[in-house]
Amino acid sequence: MSTFKRGIINFIIGGCILNRSGKKQKYAYVIHTAVAQQAHDRVANITKTLIYQLKEKAEEHIVYIEKLLQESYRDISNSVIEFGFDIPEYEEIKEDFYSAIGQGVKVSVINAKDDINKYLNEDTGELKLRTPFSIFVGGQVLDRGITIPNMVGFYYARNPKTMQQDTVMQHSRIFGYRENDLLSITRFYTTRKIYESMVKITEIDVALRDDIKHDRFEDGICFIERRGDTQSTAKIVPCSPSKISVSNVVYLKPSSRILPIGFLPKAKAISDKVVREVNLMIDSIMPREQKREVVIDIVKAEELIEKVYSCLVPDENTERFVESDKMIYEN
Description:
Elements: H1 2-20, E1 27-32, H2 37-56, H3 62-82, H4 90-103, E2 105-110, E3 133-138, H5 140-143, E4 151-156, E5 162-164, H6 165-171, H7 180-183, E6 187-189, H8 192-213, E7 235-237, H9 241-244, E8 263-265, H10 268-283, H11 298-309, E9 312-314, H12 324-329
Parallel strand pairs: 1-3, 1-4, 2-3, 4-6, 5-7
Antiparallel strand pairs: 8-9
Helix pairs in contact: 1-3, 1-4, 10-11
């Protein structure tokens, strides 16, 4: 809950700092916590209660609120200064903060039970910012397809057991382009587990882009995800299985396998002889009882591949057979 409070206070403090610097704008903050519509109403009510308590400044809360404001001012100031902008005095920002809380903050729930069109700017199609500080709470409707101007804060707490890589990356549009003034006050809030999962997704995406850049997928792309999820990350899949079923992507579940295609075996007598010879070659490299992998000489590896290929014949009805030379010298 402390992160939730800090996020909203930082959002308003940041906007007040930019406005004091002569950049009068309206700002947006998105809270994306769950798919269920009941959760959206509950989170919106919590947000409104927090804003009400900040506005009322009850005597028993004064010291705590002052502490939150000072922490937020220091936090936002650090990044604003890094971007080369001036920082107004704390007392000025504090005055602006309470003015905004009093009349300039609006909390709206955006989901499928309401007509989204009434929230859109007719000229631009963007979500309309009706007050200096707009806080939008929602789920799937806010996921994609709607442009939110001047979005400088994103509280992301949607935590499914299985994270679909393409969906999470769409949710992460908070990382999109913005001018330096907006970037200086932009903040992203989430849980440690979601953060670690997003790091993993980023690593997968970077590796995929690197493989494409270096033309390592001449024969197509296979997404292969072994079961490596832990308590610190969610299970990650490339996308929904329904998207893969109508494409050429091969999806492998944990403990399943993909086998070579595009060839026919030679006669059994020839194949059996090759299998015996391959086994003898492997026995000379490592004992059969050894379960761990070993590093072998390149020449030995080439001999093994050539031996296996000696019992295979390319299937004339497919173009997906990989010749031994290509297997050896391009992999």
